[in-house]
Each structure stands twice: as C-alpha cells, then as structure tokens.
Design a protein that fits this description.
The structure holds 2 protein chains of 2 kinds. Chain A has 20 helices and 11 strands. Chain A is of the alpha/beta class. Chain A has a domain of 293 residues: TIM Barrel. Chain A has a 9-stranded parallel sheet. A two-stranded antiparallel sheet of chain A has the order 1-11. The longest helix of chain A is centred in the first third of the chain and has 36 residues. A 5-stranded parallel sheet of chain B has the order 7-6-8-9-10, sandwiched between helices. A 3-stranded antiparallel sheet of chain B has the order 2-4-3, with helices on one face. The chains are: A alpha/beta, B alpha/beta. At the A-B interface, α10, α12 and α16 of A face β2 and α4 of B.
C-alpha cells in the first residue's frame, strides 16, 4: 500500500466525490441529531445496567420505554422521567422500576427545576459504568492482540458459522479458527432484523442462523478467547448491528467485546424496508458506540450487486462506500475501523469479467487506502455446479490477493446449495491458502497500464459515481426536504422506492424536544476523537 | 431450474410424445457414463467423523461398497483436523436405472424469469399487478412473507418487490382479517398472500378459512382477488377446502410465486379488474 498508486485517478475528482458525499449526508446527520428512537432509548437503559426479560421473553428495557412513552412521551428522552421516578422513591432500582411499570403501578412525570437537574445527573452517573465497561473491553482487546498477535497474513480470513444453536456454533467456530479462520461471524436468525426487541439468554433454535443475544455474545467471545490462547492468534468475533434494534445490539457488542459488526448506512432501508429516519437515527448512535468500543464496522455494498447488475451498478457500490465513509467518520469512527464492503458479483459469462473485477477492487483500494476493505465472494452466479463454483472462488481469491484486500470472506462452492459441509469449508480454506501462497506477492508486479482496460474502467466507474452523487444532491422535492431521503424515496438505489414516511419501525421514531437529554450521547459526544 | 418441469406428467415410455420419439428413442435401462457406454462410473465425496488412518480408509471403502460402488477406488483421503477425514471415491455402480419407472410430477405452471414475469404482466394487465401480503392471527413470524416479498428474497432469488411490474404492499405481522380485507380493497389487490409460520392447534387452518370467508363476503362473486397461503404446515391439495387458490409449502421461492401469479392471471382465476 505504500508503493505508488496503481490507478491514475484525478485527485480533483476524488475530492469532488467526497465533498458531494458530505453534502448529501450532512442534512441526514442533522435529522439524526434531532430525533431519537425507542431502540436508542432502550440502548441507554442497557448501558445503565437494565437487562433481562419477563417470563414471556419481553425485555425489561422494552417494558420501561413503552411505559414512559405512554405516560409522558420520549421527547425528553427516557432517562429523565425514569431517574426522576427513582429519585422520588418509586422503586429502589431500575429493574424493580421496570417490573412495576410493566404492571402499571408507577407514575412518570417530567420533572422541573432542581428535580430536573437531579434526574439528569443521576442518569449520567448510571450510564457511566456501562460506558466504562465498553472502554475496559477495548483495552482488554488491545492487550490480547498484543499477547496473542494479529494474523500473520493479509487479508484476514473471515468464516461464517450458523447452526441456530449457540452450543453447536461454539465447537464449529473453534474448529474453523484451528483450520485458519482469523475472523468468525455468527450469522443471525432470519428475521431478527425485523424484531423490535433483542431476545434474551442462550438460544438453541434459530432459522438459518443464531439469534444475537447478550448471552450468546458472551459465550462465543469466551470460547474464542480460549482458542486464541491455544493458537497464539487473536480470533475476532463478528455479529450484525442492523435492523430495528441496531443501537441495542451495538451496545451489547461493546459490553461483550465483539470485534467487528456489520453496520451499513442504507441496507435496512433498501433491503428490509425499515423506515429511513429510524435507520439513520439508530445508525448514528450505533456507530458512535462502535467508535468508542474500537469495533471495526463492515458495510454491506455486496447487496447492491446481488440485486442490480454488477457491471451497470458498479458505481452505486462506490457511492455507497463514500456515504458509509462520511456517516462513519461523522459518528467518530476512524479509518482503521471502516471495513467498507464490495463483492465479486460480475456475471462470469460476460467477456472481461475478471478484468472488471480487478478494476473495481483496485478503485476501492485506492479511494480508501487506510480502510480495512472487506472483500466478499460470488453468490449470485453460483449455480449449484460446485466444481465451477470452486474455480470462481479461486478467481475471487486471486483478485483479493492482487489488490491488497484486508478482510476476505471465504467463498463456499456450495453457496446457494446447502449450508456448508465441514469438507466445503476445508476445501474453501485450501483454495484461499493456495492463492495467497502462490500469488500473494503479485500485487508488487501488477501495474495495469494507464490507458489500458482496467484503468479506463476504474475511472469510468468513479465518474459515474460522481454523477450519481450530483444527482442525489440536486434531488429537490418539496422545500425543506432532505435530498438523500428524496433520492431514496425516488428509487435511486437498488431500484427500491422507500419514502421517509413509511417502512417498518416508523412508529418508534420521536422528534426530540428542546430539553431532550441522553446521558449516553453526552458521554459519546464528549469522548470523540479519542 | 426451468427445464425441470418440462417433462411429461407420467413417464411411461410408450406414451412419449411423437415429437420426442422422432428425435431419439431412449433406451429403457441405463447406467452412469464415465468414459465408455455402460461403464457405470461415478464419483462421490464424503466425510467420516474419524481420524485419518488405514482404518478410516477401510471404512470409506466399506461405505462405498454399501452404496453399490464395486469396485471402488479411493483416490483421495485427507485429515480435516484431528477428528474428521475427507474422501473422494471413484467406482462402478452396480445399479441399473429403469427409465420406465421414473415419475415426474409436473407443476401446473412454468417457471419464468423476472424479466418474463414483468413482460407477461405488462402484456396482460397493461398496469402493475398489485400484491398485498400479511401474517394473520397471532403469528409474528414474518420470515416467510418477507422472504417472498422483500427485495432481499430467499435462496438467491429476489423477492416480489424486485419485479418492476408488481406493486407490493406488505402489511407485516399480526394483521387482523378485516384490516387485511380493507387494505386489499383500498389497494385494488389482484392477489393476497398470507403467511402462517408458527401455529398451534391448527390455528393456521382456522385463520386461513376465516380469511377466505371474509374475502368472499366482502367482494362480489367472481371478483375476489387471488388468495394464496404459504407455510410449512399446510397440506398440499387442501387449497379448495381452505377456500384459497393456491398453497405454497416450505422452501418456496419468490420466483415460483411470481410465476404462479402470471399463470393465474392468464387463466383468469383472479376476479377483480382483469381483462
């Protein structure tokens, strides 16, 4: 990466792209700062130590937020009425208060004057231990990385486990690490992104994945700590901060020392039909937590390519990367935390598909030189012909090696056929190792000519990205509307029209009143630039 | 996949169509083809949960023999960690395939690509096809309906939202039947998709019958939108008894549903505002 850049890109065009991304993103950030959501408020209560659920599995944080919302609204934030109630002696602690509120036997008020400042200061005091635990976890991670070491090679090898049963996942994850995985992702159960609560406890059944719960996080992290020690290499753990509970899951990840989280700025809006404002508000808070926790985010640009054509829509990936970068940095994430995504999804039947893949991967590498890029394998053109799929994965690995990608999600030849067999994973890792071993240094020799196909293609994609950003910034609807939201509702991305006043989770969005207080945000905003 | 349903209904070879016979007469008994007619050669790979040693290789050959591979040639054995061994075996199978006994169950509609679905809707309706979807009753599991409707889709296929000629209204979970009927009327739905994933004491059957009765009551005869239910517990062949047009089971993909919709509007099953 320290050598001279492989692509001759006009620095003025790159600057323009970034400045357009900022112009498109800034009004959305303003919107995010002036709204809160039920999930943000629940995350604050989790930081204040409220955990657990009733006998039907409804978390206490949901009970308490709902009760406050019913009585006095969330416009001032949940903590002010909650800590006022505690101050008035309605209950000795948060858990009891939540239990009483579920039974309807607590009355909440909006305090004034001295009561107000007392509620603010006790709320701040209450979330500090949670924030301190996140800080301590970051220190612990740094210490363990120092002790056990980082992977010896780049890219880091990223493998997925997903049985639905955390107690099955654990031995599988440990085995995967012993076989060479550096990063383990536990895929979530289908549909968890649309649950408006976080399930509790260790879970043994899920659909095509395992539920993200605090207990499951803790169990898996402990198991990987054990295997890190055995292997002399720190094994990173990944989960998903997406969907309706993004802020809470981000918080739990910080509390249980997860290392990477999938967190995309627009995925939930476009592919899950979650309300755009809900998404942007939740996302900003979750990214602030990730920034604080030293977590690397992984963005989801691969999804654009599974929906649209990977050649025609190549520039939408670049636009999404630029937007993800803007939103991430605004929330306090640093370059080393930006696992911007892209994928090998060009139809292998078309001529020069491999050259176009190289162009796109080099473009991402050069636009974001310090970011740990996440390189994702073919899925759309995996047909069930596992032999052909194995070859395609080999070419995918080769692009990864030649263009200096940082996190390589290992492709399975049985993609779209079955959940991978043990042997599929072993073969896939052999494929990666062979390519890295045989061609890992090729990046040194590989300098595509300035007027050749690859450079021309990369420049074209970049200029199309700038055009699209320009179109977004100039997408004016009614006066006062936010251009990016307008563009999303016009179907500019991934063909999906997502209006700002529709989608799942809209009823959980609340506009903040002038006296809104969120002690977690206070600490997060104060801790920026660490 | 689209070739799969092109076979004839039952395949007694005597009744093969004249056209097929004109092309080529297939033998009735066949064997796998390696490099010579009748050699019966196949290749399989599998994993056994034991460490790699001589005994493991013997175990692999034993399995191959029991699978009908005689003789079997163990061409590759590799330890995967300390507890598993991966094998590749080539061999000649002793089995014969009798083509007269092959039964092909035909789907009543052809599987179409997204492009063909869009083109067919455009040609037949000259407007978008409107689909309203929901989970009804107490079922909060939107996994099924979302897999079919959301653009994210299922099994590598994009959901109905991806189809430019289909307008999707996803009402979400725990929708009351009267609400669903009202929404379907307001949207002028051509089809209503209902998902029932988690069910106890046949709740999925009661819910579905209540739903179909409500639609028949609310719409004039012959104008009821296509009623489609999906879920792992529905019995195939019970559509009529439940008062719906079609049942889809576990593993149904959005493409199948879209193709069925095109087939159904072509057949004029949906009443409302169809040509």
């Amino acid at each position: 990466m320290s050598t001279k850049p492989k692509l001759e890109l006009d620095p003025a065009v790159i600057r323009k792209a970034r400045s357009l991304a900022r112009r498109a993103g800034a009004p959305v950030v303003k919107l995010a700062r002036t709204h809160t959501t039920v999930s943000v408020e629940r995350a604050v209560l989790r930081l204040a130590g409220l955990a657990g659920a009733d006998h039907e599995g409804v978390p206490w944080v949901n009970h308490l937020v709902d009760a406050v919302r019913d009585e006095v609204g969330l416009e001032q934030g949940v903590t002010t009425p909650v800590f006022d109630a505690l101050g008035r002696g309605e209950a000795p602690d948060l858990l009891t208060l939540a239990q009483k509120s579920a039974a309807g036997s607590v009355s909440f008020h909006l305090p004034q004057g001295r009561d107000l400042s007392r509620a603010h200061s006790s709320a701040l005091r209450a979330v500090k231990p949670g924030m301190a635990r996140i800080d301590r976890n970051r220190v612990t991670r740094d210490r363990l990385i120092k002790r056990h070491g980082n992977p010896k090679q780049r890219p880091w090898i990223y493998l997925i486990v997903a049985t639905g049963d955390i107690y099955e996942d654990i031995p599988q994850a440990q085995t995967a690490a012993r076989e060479g995985a550096d990063v383990i992702a536990v895929i979530r159960s289908t549909g968890q992104s649309l649950l408006d609560f976080v399930p509790e406890g260790a879970t043994r059944e899920g659909y095509a994945g395992t539920y993200a719960t605090q207990e499951n996080f803790a169990l898996m992290r402990a198991a990987l700590d054990e295997v890190s020690k055995e292997l002399g290499r720190y094994i990173r753990l990944v989960n998903y901060a997406s969907g309706l509970c993004m802020p809470e899951i981000a918080t739990l990840a910080g509390l249980e020392r997860l290392d990477m989280m999938l967190n995309d700025s627009m995925y939930g809006i476009l592919f899950r039909d979650i309300n755009p404002i809900r998404t942007f508000v939740d996302q900003r808070f979750s990214r602030q937590i990730h920034a604080r926790a030293g977590i690397i985010i992984n963005t989801g640009e691969d999804n654009y390519l599974t929906t649209a054509d990977a050649v025609d829509a190549a520039h939408t990936v670049t636009v999404s990367q630029l937007m993800n970068e803007y939103f991430a940095k605004e929330a306090g994430l640093e370059d080393w935390q930006l696992g911007l995504g892209h994928a090998f999804e060009i139809n292998p039947e078309i001529p020069d598909s491999f050259r176009m893949e190289l162009a796109q991967a080099l473009l991402a590498r050069q636009l974001f030189p310090q970011a740990p890029l996440k390189w994702m394998p073919p899925t759309k053109h995996m047909t069930g012909d596992v032999f052909r799929g194995y070859l395609l994965d080999g070419f995918f690995n080769l692009v990864g090696a030649m263009t200096g990608q940082d996190i390589l999600l290992v492709g399975m030849m049985t993609e779209a056929v079955v959940t991978p067999f043990l042997s599929d994973r072993d073969l896939a890792l052999q494929n990666v190792r062979y390519v890295l071993n045989a061609a890992g240094g090729l990046s040194e020799d590989f300098h595509p000519p300035g007027d050749g196909f690859i450079q021309t293609r990369a420049r074209r994609v970049l200029s199309e990205a700038v055009d699209l950003l320009e179109k977004i910034v100039n997408d004016k609807g009614q006066p006062g509307s936010v251009p990016l939201l307008q563009a999303i509702s016009d179907g500019t991305f991934g063909l999906m029209k997502r209006p700002a006043d529709a989608g799942k989770g809209l009823d959980g969005v609340v506009k903040c009143a002038p006296g809104y207080d969120n002690p977690a945000s206070t600490l997060l905003e104060a801790g920026r630039g660490r | 996949m689209s070739t799969r349903d092109k076979g004839s209904k039952q395949a007694p070879s005597k009744k093969t169509s004249a056209k097929a016979q004109a092309v080529k007469t297939l033998p009735e008994i066949i064997r796998p083809y390696g490099d010579t007619t009748g050699d019966g050669m196949v290749q399989v790979s599998f994993t056994l949960p034991i460490p790699h040693d001589k005994r493991a290789e013997g175990a692999a050959l034993q399995l191959a023999a029991k699978m009908g591979l005689k003789p079997a040639l163990l061409v590759h054995a590799k330890a995967m960690g300390s507890d598993f061994t991966f094998f590749i075996v080539y061999g000649r199978v002793s089995h014969l395939v009798d083509l007269r006994e092959v039964v092909v169950i035909e789907r009543e509609f052809a599987l179409l690509s997204a492009k063909d679905v869009n083109a067919a809707i455009k040609a037949r309706l000259r407007r978008k096809l409107v689909v309203v979807g929901a989970c009804i009753g107490t079922d909060a599991h939107t996994v099924g309906i979302d897999a079919i409707l959301n653009i994210k889709g299922f099994a590598g296929e994009k959901g109905l939202e991806y189809y430019t000629e289909i307008k999707v209204v996803n009402c979400g979970a725990q929708v009351l039947v009267p609400e669903l009927v009202a929404r379907a009327r307001a949207e002028k739905a051509d089809a209503v998709l209902v998902s029932q994933v988690v069910t106890q004491k046949d709740a999925h059957i009661h819910n579905t019958m209540t739903m179909s009765a409500a639609f028949r009551e609310a719409y004039p005869a012959g104008k009821v939108p296509l009623l489609i239910v999906g879920g792992p517990r529905f019995e195939q062949g019970s559509a009529h008894a439940l008062g719906v047009n079609r049942i889809f089971g576990k593993g149904t993909t959005p493409g199948e549903v879209a193709s069925y919709l095109v087939h159904a509007i072509g057949a004029g099953q949906a009443g409302q505002s169809l040509p």
